[in-house]
Write a structure and sequence with these properties.
Blueprint (H helix, E strand, L loop, with lengths): L8 H8 L3 H10 L6 E4 L2 E4 L1 H15 L4 H11 L14 H13 L5 H201 L5 H7 L3 H50 L1
Antiparallel strand pairs: 1-2
Helix pairs in contact: 6-8
Length: 375
């Protein structure tokens, strides 16, 4: 055991870079897995305990809680039972028995012997418990003293720092006060100059505003006069447009009545012409039919004569039976006349459509002229 390297709590905190309070907490929680030895009033630790504490810090960094850390340690390390140091029995431990024997009555000797036997059996356990409690209390007092020392050191450091910062703050406040005074003086001069400039600028602005207001008032008057003139012109144009519209509507009505009369007269002329043409055609057709019938009778007689002579038809007889060319000419002339009549009807309809379109264009032009005049 003398060759093994030993550590104190302060050395362990330096090696692990962990506060002593946290180390004390770990040692109280995981004392069954940390190897240590009591040398007088202080504990001494070994390399194995340093390794266990390193593992605990690694598990803490992984985010594991105390129960999980204890499970991991139970898997990796053996369980160390706490053994109390053997101490010699004090005279005070034997004194209670003697006093008890003196205080007991002589009649109950058997009971006394039984109690003495029980005390002799329980004394070692009680001694161990008292020693363990004393050791735990001494450890707690040591922890408390160490924590007090640390807190005193921290308080001293913080007090020194606070004194330094107070001195620095006082110096800064003094510097800032001097700067504030200098800046106040400079600002007062600047503000005076700005006030003078502001008064001058106010006078200039007032003069410019008065001039601009007069100019605007004159411009508004001129615009009102121009607007009145334009309103009078627009009223005149509106009256003219109303008159033009009335005259235009009257002209349209007259044109429509003229077109209707012309159409009726044209239709009557067409009917008369068509009736005359039909009469002439019927007369010519009747004459041609009579002539054709006479010629046909002659040809039939000739054919009969030829039949009586030869008994067969020739090409001459077949051609003679055909329609004469005069009738074909008449039919062609009738077809031409009908086509010409249809063309004339179409021309009349086109002229009527053009007249109606011209009237609409005249209306549109009049409306456009009226709009341009209004604009």
């Amino acid at each position: 055991m003398e060759n093994r390297k030993t550590y104190s709590i302060a050395e362990l905190s330096r090696e692990l870079d962990i506060a002593r309070t946290t180390l004390n907490d770990w040692m109280s929680r995981y004392s069954h897995y940390i190897e240590y030895e009591n040398q007088g009033r202080r504990k001494v630790f070994f390399d194995s305990s340093l390794a266990v504490l390193q593992e605990i810090s690694a598990l803490r960094e992984e985010g594991k809680n105390s129960f999980e850390i204890e499970k991991e340690l139970s898997k990796r390390h053996p369980f160390h039972a706490e053994v109390a140091g053997e101490l010699p029995l004090d005279d005070e431990t034997d004194s209670p028995g003697e006093e008890h024997e003196e205080s007991d009555q002589p009649q109950n000797n058997q009971e006394v012997t039984k109690l003495q036997n029980l005390e002799e059996q329980l004394l070692p356990a009680v001694k161990e418990q008292t020693e363990e409690v004393g050791r735990m209390l001494s450890e707690q007092f040591k922890k408390m003293s160490e924590n007090l020392e640390e807190t005193r050191a921290i308080a001293d450091k913080s007090a020194r720092r606070n004194h330094r910062w107070l001195a620095i703050a006082v110096v800064l406040i003094i510097c800032l006060g001097a700067l504030a005074v200098v800046l106040a003086v400079k600002l007062s001069g600047v503000l005076d100059r700005q006030g003078q400039n502001f008064t001058k600028s106010q006078g200039e602005i007032r003069s410019t505003v008065s001039k601009s207001s007069k100019m605007l008032f004159d411009e508004l008057k001129n615009r009102e006069a121009k607007l009145k003139e334009q309103e009078a012109k627009l009223n005149k144009l509106a009256v003219m447009l109303d008159r033009n519209n009335a005259n235009y509507q009257e002209n349209i009505k007259k044109l429509q009545s003229q077109l209707t009369t012309q159409r009726k007269s044209f239709e009557e002329m067409l009917k008369k012409y068509s009736n005359d043409v039909e009469k002439q055609r019927q007369a010519t057709v009747a004459l041609l039919k009579s002539d054709f019938a006479a010629q046909r009778l002659k040809l039939i007689k000739q054919i009969e004569e030829l039949r009586a002579r030869s008994g067969n038809y020739d090409a001459e007889t077949s051609s003679a039976l055909k329609e004469p060319p005069v009738i074909t000419k008449l039919k062609a002339e009738e077809a031409k006349e009908e086509a010409q009549a249809k063309k004339s009807v179409k021309k009349i309809e086109k002229s009527e459509n053009k007249n109606s379109a011209g009237s609409e264009n005249v209306l549109g032009n009049s409306n456009s002229t009226s709009d341009s005049q209004v604009n």
